[in-house]
């Protein structure tokens, strides 16, 4: 079984989408092996998103991701990375509403930055992100 990191971003928490997202996660057969509510500090957000630091949206992304509490969850399932990314849908919620109207971002995302949820894009990224957020490589 594989692990991935799921995050309900500040817009998702503010919009009270956390319970519905957790219901989708559990209804899809994932085990939630770790869960934590936290607010990212500036340093942790910058480390999480360092691959985007040259992009024009970086500052907006960091401001947004540190703007309020998030809920981080370690999910376990066969092919967890791909399975979770299919459930969340494309980065841009408007594209998600056209291409995958039942996806989480189609339902609760409002913009390309404020897109409600995060999913790791590989198993290596998942391990790295889980270590950064939970400060523990083999958490669970
Ligand atoms: P995530 O990694 O959060 O699951 P993703 O893999 O779909 O999302 P990435 O390309 O890794 O997207 O970008 C990380 C995050 O940066 C996005 O989820 C979004 O919040 C923000 N972002 C990405 N591209 C843009 C953009 N063009 N304009 C504004 N914000 C963006």
From TrEMBL:
Binding site for ATP: 9, 57, 85, 91, 105, 115
Species in which this protein is naturally found: Ceratopteris richardii (Triangle waterfern)
Keywords per UniProt: ATP-binding, Kinase, Nucleotide-binding, Signal, Transferase
Name of protein: Nucleoside diphosphate kinase-like domain-containing protein
The Nucleoside diphosphate kinase-like domain, residue ranges: 1-140
Family stated for the protein in its record: Belongs to the NDK family.
Active site (catalytic residues): 118
Protein origin, superkingdom: Eukaryota
Catalytic activity from the UniProt record: a 2'-deoxyribonucleoside 5'-diphosphate + ATP = a 2'-deoxyribonucleoside 5'-triphosphate + ADP; a ribonucleoside 5'-diphosphate + ATP = a ribonucleoside 5'-triphosphate + ADP
GO molecular function: ATP binding; nucleoside diphosphate kinase activity
Origin organism lineage: Eukaryota, Viridiplantae, Streptophyta, Embryophyta, Tracheophyta
GO BP annotation list: CTP biosynthetic process; GTP biosynthetic process; UTP biosynthetic process
Portion of the full-length sequence here: 34 to 173 of 183
TM region(s), chain numbering: none
